[in-house]
């Protein structure tokens, strides 16, 4: 199996390490902070115990932790790696410096992928000698429970590198989505931004409570979108598929889209109104709710993976 390097062992980096190790790959993890590496084994064990509990620890749960090794030197983590997954801060100057080091130290055939959630690869990889092997592999937090990864190449990225990265992510059990060109926010965050803007506007204007808004998504759109996207949803919502749907409902949807909220929806007042639906900002209680969320995501992931073999073509 492939060898994978993880640069940055925070929450996303640890989750990526788990993804690749769960698939049987050898994973070496580097972080510039020694204290982060000192906690790595304990953090992986805690993640592993929960994954075993929810039956999402892969085919070899016993051997999984042993396939993740901490490295104090970046060059040791990169040695022989097929792909390096970078998980540094979303600060342009830091990513530029880190990718310069990765490009200098990694073998020429190693794919250099960033977990960036906002910065495009061209912002921190342009001009590098190995820019043809650079791209963004944007996950959803946490990637070991939410499998989609957006592959966003920069204009100079070699097409073969995109295909190789997609094959590696797929082999690790993820669902790669290849973008044909890079765009600010990629796909997921652009969609999320539009939904959030309208959600905040509806709450701020008193149309619906925060609880009612979440219930509309949780028990409405989210229920369908858990196993099919909006394109297939509208394809199945009219006898003649998408063209029929747009002929029937297109004018109405266009009117609503033209009236939808924009960037001004993200205001302090909107934040205050939305927060009224949640009873606490206590960090411990939020963390407990995050633990509940991860358990629910694990259960959903297991269910959907088990159902995948029954999908009708």
Provide a short characterization of the protein structure.
This protein is an alpha/beta fold and 313 residues long.
Q: What Rg is obtained from the alpha carbons, in whole angstroms? A: 21 Å
Q: Look up the CATH topology of the largest domain.
A: Rossmann fold
Number of domains: 2
CATH-assigned homologous superfamily of the largest domain: NAD(P)-binding Rossmann-like Domain
pLDDT averaged residue by residue? 93
The number of distinct β-strands equals: 8
Report the uncertain regions. none
Q: Structural class of the helices, strands and pairings?
A: alpha/beta
Give the SSE order as H and E letters. Answer: EHEHHEHEHEHEEHEHHHHHH
Q: Largest sheet, described in full? A: 8 strands, mixed
Write out the strand line-up for the largest beta sheet, numbering strands in chain order.
3-2-1-4-5-6-7-8
Q: Give the amount of beta strand, in percent.
A: 5-15%
Which CATH top level class of the largest domain fits? Alpha Beta
User: Which bin fits the share of residues in helices?
Assistant: 40-55%
CATH A-level architecture of the largest domain? 3-Layer(aba) Sandwich
Distance between the termini: 30 Å
Distinct helical segment count? 13
The gross shape turns out to be: globular
Q: Would you write up a description of this structure?
A:
This protein is an alpha/beta fold and 313 residues long. The chain folds into two domains: 3-178, Rossmann fold (3-Layer(aba) Sandwich); 188-278, N-(1-d-carboxylethyl)-l-norvaline Dehydrogenase, domain 2 (Orthogonal Bundle), CATH 1.10.1040.10. The chain has helices at residues 11-22, 34-38, 40-53, 74-78, 92-105, 121-125, 159-171, 188-204, 210-225, 230-236, 241-258, 268-275, 283-308, and strands spanning 3-7, 26-30, 68-71, 83-86, 111-114, 134-139, 148-153, 175-178. An eight-stranded mixed beta sheet has the order 3-2-1-4-5-6-7-8, with helices on both faces. Strand 1, helix 1 and strand 2 (26-30) form a beta-alpha-beta unit.
């Amino acid at each position: 199996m492939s060898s994978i390097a993880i640069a940055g062992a925070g929450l996303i980096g640890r989750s990526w390490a788990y993804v690749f190790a769960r698939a049987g790959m050898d994973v070496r993890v580097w972080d510039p902070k020694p204290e982060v590496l000192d906690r790595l084994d304990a953090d992986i064990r805690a993640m592993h115990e929960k994954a075993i509990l929810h039956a999402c620890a892969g085919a070899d749960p016993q051997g999984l932790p042993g396939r993740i090794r901490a490295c104090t030197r970046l060059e040791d983590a990169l040695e022989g790696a097929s792909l390096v997954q970078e998980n540094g801060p979303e600060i342009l100057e830091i990513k530029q410096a880190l990718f310069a080091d990765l490009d200098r130290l990694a073998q020429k055939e190693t794919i250099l992928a960033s977990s960036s959630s906002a910065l495009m690869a061209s912002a921190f990889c342009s001009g590098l000698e190995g820019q043809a092997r650079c791209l963004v592999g944007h996950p959803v937090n946490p990637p070991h429970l939410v499998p989609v990864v957006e592959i966003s190449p920069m204009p100079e990225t070699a097409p073969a590198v995109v295909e190789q990265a997609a094959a590696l992510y797929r082999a690790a059990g993820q669902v790669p989505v290849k973008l044909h060109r890079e765009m600010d926010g990629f796909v997921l965050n652009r969609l999320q931004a539009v939904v959030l803007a309208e959600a905040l506007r509806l709450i701020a204007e008193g149309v619906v409570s925060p609880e009612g808004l979440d219930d509309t998504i949780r028990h409405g759109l989210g229920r369908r979108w858990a196993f099919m996207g909006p394109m297939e949803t509208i394809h199945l919502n009219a006898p003649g598929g998408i063209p029929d749907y747009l002929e029937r409902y297109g004018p109405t949807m266009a009117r609503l889209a033209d009236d939808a909220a924009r960037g001004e929806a993200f205001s302090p007042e909107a934040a205050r109104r939305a927060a009224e639906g949640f009873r606490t900002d206590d960090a411990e209680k939020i963390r407990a709710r995050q633990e509940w969320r991860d358990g629910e995501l694990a259960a959903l992931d297991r269910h959907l993976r088990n159902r995948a073999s029954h999908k009708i073509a």
